[in-house]
Amino acid sequence: MRLRTTSVVAGASALLLLTGCGAADMTKQASPFANARGARTVTLSVQSWVGAQSNVAVAQYLLEHEMGYRVDTVQVDEVPAWDALSQGRVDAILEDWGHPDQEKRYVEDKRTIAPGGDLGVTGHIGWYVPTYFAKQHPDVTDWKNLDKYADRLRTPESGGKGQLLDGSPSYVTNDKALVNNLKLNYQVVFAGSEAAQITQMKQFAKEKKPFLTYWYSPQWLFEKVPMTEVRLPAYKEGCDADAAKVACAYPHTPLKKYLNADFARTGGKAAAFLKKFRWTTGDQNEVSLMIANDKLTPQEAAKKWVERHRSTWRAWLPS
Q1: How open is the CA angle 305-308-309, to the nearest 5 degrees?
Q2: Where are the alpha helices (DSSP H) in the chain?
Q3: What is the DSSP secondary structure assignment for residue 261, as one 8-state letter?
Q4: Element (DSSP H or E) covering residue 71
Q5: Helix, strand, or coil here: 191?
């Protein structure tokens, strides 16, 4: 997705939590510990959305406190992260929402990146309205009726049309093509980041105003702002092959992990651990909610999760 794109200090790198600095390209900033001979270090790519940061926080905590590694992190956008991974600037991506072009180039053709297995979480992007609005107007949950509500969903930023609120332009999104191909009277408006998008949605919800937004699961905000998905034309395999002609819903995507191919072969117990790292949507949301809503640092949230779920993570540790 996906995406789906959040001050965290993780290892040696400062990350901007929930600022959605998804436009920052840090592929030039390799960790000084990446591929260092004999060093017990791991460098992880961390995307700006909080769910991805939850993965990294827990993996980092266990690598450091249970396995004796130093973990360094680098924030990279979704597509540049593949370049960084291929070049060995980072060792692993723990949450990928599906990038078939990069997968073909680096996994199949160049073989510089190796699959790391499923994360255990299924991601889904969609269009959502707040549940309080859907209850008042049940037909709004069918895309064919959206134009009926365009006036009510208009904002100063949408130029006289209804507003479809997106997050960062760097996220996986077909929304401009969907609006165009479904001939909807809407304008895609980018909030700029996940954080800015969340702020707008929470403000709309506080005032009980209607809104239409690009959003995704898993995501902790559903716990605070219940939302109902708008039914788009059904997804069928290949319906999104041509980005300019997309006129169908987003798929449900099992989220994947990827490792630098050399690291996958020579990374020892750290690589084995990351391949085994697999948890549920509920696990990820538990950590994400502590970070984003309870304002714990990722390290604090990871520690709490680890203390509560010993039976889950013990299975990830290599023998």
Answers
A1: 85
A2: 50-65, 78-86, 100-102, 131-136, 175-181, 194-206, 261-266, 268-276, 281-292, 298-308, 310-313
A3: H
A4: strand 70-75
A5: coil
Those residues with Cβ within 8 angstroms of residue 61's Cβ, 6 or more apart along the chain or in another chain:
299, 302, 303, 306
Whether residue 218 has a cis bond before it, omega within 30° of 0: yes
Show Cβ contacts of residue 89 under 8 Å, excluding neighbours closer than 6 positions. Answer: 27, 29, 30, 31, 34, 43, 74
Angle (CA) 294-297-301 rounded to 5° is 70
- CA separation for the pair 76, 47 (Å, rounded): 6
Give 98-144 pLDDT, tens digit per residue. Answer: 898 999 999 999 999 999 999 999 999 999 999 999 999 999 999 99
Residue 277 has pLDDT above 60, yes or no: yes
Distance between CA atoms of residues 235 and 1, nearest Å: 14
Return the amino acid letter for 269: K
Beta 41-46 vs 162-166: how paired, if at all? unpaired
Q: Distance (Å, rounded) from C-alpha 52 to C-alpha 259? A: 15
The pTM for the full model equals 0.77
- If one counts every other C-beta atom within 10 angstroms of the C-beta of residue 30, the result is 17
Report the chain's terminal Cα–Cα distance, integer Å: 34
Structure token pair of residue 130 = 């707040």
**Contact residues for 120 (Cβ-Cβ < 8 A; gap 6+):** 255, 278, 279, 280
- The encoded tokens of residue 79 equal 């597509």
C-alpha span between 55 and 22 (Å, rounded): 17
Q: Which residues of 284-311 are buried (b: 16+ CB within 10 A; e: fewer)?
A: bbbbbbbbbeeebbbbebbbebbeeeee
Count CB-CB contacts under 10 A for residue 122. 15
Instruction: Please say whether the dihedral angle defined by the alpha carbons of residues 62, 63, 69 and 75, taken in this order, is positive or negative.
Output: negative
Q: Render pLDDT for 1-18 as a digit per residue (tens, 0 to 9).
A: 444 433 233 333 333 333
